[in-house]
Queue: 2 jobs
Job 1
Amino acid sequence: MKKEFHFEVHTQWQKNQFVNPKTHTSTIDGKESINVSAAREFKGEPDKRNPEDLLLSALSSCHMMSYFYVCQQEGIEIMGYKDTANGILELHPDASGGFKTVQLNPVVTIKNSDQKSLAISLHEKAHQLCFIANSINFKIKITVKINIL
């Protein structure tokens, strides 16, 4: 039986509320609001989060949490995890566009050197489980590095 979960975000903009007319507020009930703007490349405020940053953040975070899940199932103790996600957004002449590719670069530190190969291979399973990766239409590349503590 499939389960459904519902999420809701409130986006609010009002004329003259911010110096930059592309800046707005994103609110999720019960959580701190954030000010969002267009990316600097699209005349937004460079010190504000932008939708492109948030998409990369969501993808990187979702992959990490899916990876933690599969590692826990396999008995791999993760001691540290960091990732640098890079994306290429392609802009078309008609001003439409989208991400063409995203590169995830997780660096994982584990305790047991005997689990290194398994720890590497589990990134593919994590990718298959990632809700965000399953919701997008661009290619995701994953380059993994495993460190042993």
Note: Residues 55 and 132 are 9 Å apart (CA to CA).
Job 2
Amino acid sequence: MMQKFPMTVHGHAALEAELKHLKSVERPEIINAISVARDHGDLKENAEYHAAKEKQGFIEGRIQELESKLSLAQVIDPSSMSGEVVRFGATVKIVNEDTDVESTYQIVGEDEANVKDGKISITSPIARAMITKEVGDGFEVVAPGGSKLYEILEVFYK
């Protein structure tokens, strides 16, 4: 059986939008570019043709990758969840116990992760350390620069 991958509703919609764009905009554009480049004659020395074929390979590969990810997605709606236990989709406010610096992260699927937006992958060390913990619990993250201790201040689902 194929493994399912957790993904938020928002992340699933973003991948579907990218797939639709690749199929309806990028693919037809590159097919046209290849056709135009073919009309320029000798294909062996035609840089436009080779660049277009390379881009077509990238686009087709990305389409296959997205179709595969979407077919294996386990879509989870964090807004339908509640509680103080950290699970996939939770937004968690934590404090570094050494520096007193507070941070807030949402635990999302691998394709949705973007630390600048406060979204961390379920597979990241910090997310793995937080899963199943509750408000008030401490946890340790082993990082290249040494271990860091955190405390969970707040857990919410939105």
Note: The helical segments are 9-38, 47-71, 125-130.
